[in-house]
Amino acid sequence: MAPTINREVARCSASGNLQEAGRLLHTLAVVYWGMAGAITLLILVLAPWIAEYWLQSKQLSSQAISHAVMLMGLVVACRWPIGLYQGALIGAQRLTVSSGISMVMASIGSIGGVAVLALISPTIEAFFIWQACVGFVYAITIRAAAWRIIGKTKENSFDIDKLESVWRFTAGMSAIGLTALVFTQLDKVILSKMLGLEEFGHYMLATVVVSGLFVLVGPLFNVMYPRFSALVVTGDTKKIIDLYRLGTRTLAALLFPIAMVLAVFSEDLMLVWTGNPSLASSVAPIISILVIGSALNGVMYFPYALQLAYGMTWIPLMINVVLMCFLVPLLIYLAQAYGALGGAMAWLIAEVTYVIVGPWLTHRYILNGLGSKWFFQDVGMPLAVSSLFGAVGHYGIQAGGYSAYGNLMWAAGLAMLSSILILLMSRHLRNVVWNYARWKKSVI
Asked: How far is CA 289 from CA 102, 206, 319, 344, 347, in A?
């Protein structure tokens, strides 16, 4: 539903009729808050079973785990409506407002969480109670911001007709959301059952490191998706193509060099972060494999944004279903053979399949004929350059005998050089940077 309101607000904004978007926002908000209550009740009921029969812990009691899971459910419920109001703000192209609120609330959640643990109660329960409170304040704050921009009137009420007008797209997005949730969390669910808690903890630590890549992906997607939706309404195909290719190349120029550094220097990074050589040695191979798959997943956000802008939700839904059917047996087999490393290998194979099949299927129906240029020029070229620099880093810097800190400093420089080279190899990107620099100079 969040992508639905994002798309509809962008379309209404392009046509100058935000009042219609307000009616839809109010209707979807009723559904969202109702689902938040249902989530709370469901997890409260399931928490004892999860603690007793699913999570394998030798250090914590079942009661402590049960309480933690219940509070996690409360945190999820408090945060659940946030996505809807973020979608409305982003659709109205108010990304700065959404990002500002998110940054403030994330800071309060993190710093306050540390303070609670250090000064009040160093327990799991205290931590999640704090996060639930912050989540609720976050939801109320972003709700007020969304309505201030969309324009709340007394005429807004629950309107079943508004749901019917977007039900096809919303149903498609709901199915995509469900299958994407299963697909992205499937490895964690299966591995939590198959692995011991310590080995599973290593896998989750690796996923935390790799998730940093999506700090780059999320903002670009949030900018491009509503812009694509507005351009589809106006029918400006040339601008869509230019924006699509420029956005992909920009993301690849940033994403692939960083992923290369994480893949090659993962052990150095973990050693600097944790100070534990044994832990760094165990987690580093998992990070190296996961980060490659996640980088490939990241560039696929642009074809996904294009699919949603054109309302073709069946394409990502079909891709998710096929990949899930493929991933489950592969994940079980490789996890049994290689443990946590096998889980990472299954994820990488699934993402390689996705980046091959996804663009081919997308460009059969949208921007037909663009697929090979997008794949080889906008994705393949930055990937090749980053891989070449990664090989240089592996055999050059690693052989230099530097400390972990020294290796990371050299690696950061290598990533910057890789990004600059990718930038220089793209005429479109060069022109954008040059025009921006001239504009800044004229302003100054």
From this structure: 30, 10, 22, 6, 8
Q: Which amino acid, 360?
A: W
Burial class (CB in 10 A: 0-12, 13-18, 19+), 381: middle
pTM, 2 dp = 0.72
Give the CA-trace dihedral at 386, 388, 390, 391, to 10 degrees: 170
The Cα 379–Cα 362 span in angstroms is 15
CA distance 130 to 122: 12
Q: What does the alpha-carbon distance between residue 218 and residue 108 come to, in Å, rounded to a whole number?
A: 21
Q: How far apart are CA 308 and CA 89, in angstroms?
A: 17
> From CA 160, how far away is CA 156, in angstroms rounded?
12
- DSSP per residue, 143-165: HHHHHHHHT--TT----HHHHHH
Query: CB–CB of 153/19 below 8 Å?
Result: yes
Cα distance between residue 180 and residue 165, in whole Å: 24
C-alpha–C-alpha distance, residues 323 and 55, integer Å? 26
Residue 213 clears pLDDT 70, i.e. is over it:
yes
Contacts of 262 (CB under 8 A, 6+ apart): 209, 210, 213, 269, 287, 288, 291
Single out the residue of 317, 397, 418, 429 nearest to residue 362, CA to CA. 317
Residue with more model confidence, 4 or 374: 374
Q: 246 is written with which tokens?
A: 């420029």
Rg (CA), the chain: 23
Q: What is the pLDDT of residues 101-154, one digit of tens each?
A: 888 888 888 888 888 888 888 877 788 888 888 888 888 888 888 888 777 766
CB 223 within 8 A of CB 6: no
CB 94 within 8 A of CB 154: no
Angle between helices 266-274 and 277-299 (to 10 degrees): 130
| Residue 149, token pair as written in the block | 């921009």
* Dihedral class, residue 350 (left if φ above 0, else alpha if ψ from -120 to 50, else beta): alpha
pLDDT at 56: 62
Report whether 87 contacts 2 (CB < 8 A): yes
* pLDDT tens digits, 64-91: 778 888 888 888 888 888 888 888 777 7
Of 324, 322, 71, 37, which is closest to residue 185 (Cα–Cα)? 324
Strand, helix or coil for residue 92: coil
In this prediction, what percent of the chain has a pLDDT beyond 70? 89
